[in-house]
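The pair is set out directly below:
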Amino acid sequence: MDRAQKEKVVEELGQIFESSGVVVVAHYEGLTVAEMQDLRGRARDGGASVRVAKNRLAKIALEGKPCASIADLMTGMTVLTYSEDPVAAAKVVEDFAKDNKKLEILGGAMGSNALDRAGVEAVSKMPSREELIATIAGMIGAPASNIAGAIGAPASNIASILSTIEDKAAA
């Protein structure tokens, strides 16, 4: 890899570190090509991306970035999983690590906050952006359906009262 290629990789990594909601760092030593492709596929399906980069170049790219604290994790065979959604990458890596013990999660960063192994696990258990939006939409829609039910209720109450009166009169 010549100097121009290295500069391009550093620039790409810098963009990843700056624009990602979460970056998870893990060791992938012992993973087969098929297992790595499985991780990449799961990441793609989950709205995340996977990147293997030289640690030295990643450390250079981290300089001056909010998540610079993860530079210490860049040792050995590391793989970066990242996403704009602050939860997606953590969920993907946690799910994959449950199925494959060769992937060892070291930690990560959420914005300027450094995450240890337990922090990544905690983030993975949080609801995703889509789940939160669905919950909020449900909460917004609930009062409207309650109001519609309350408005319709008196009419049904009057109808049942009239029906009861009619039944008594007939008897």
Residues 3-126 form a domain with the Alpha-Beta Plaits fold (CATH 3.30.70.1730). Helices lie at 3-19, 33-45, 55-62, 88-99, 117-124, 129-170. The chain has a mean pLDDT of 85.
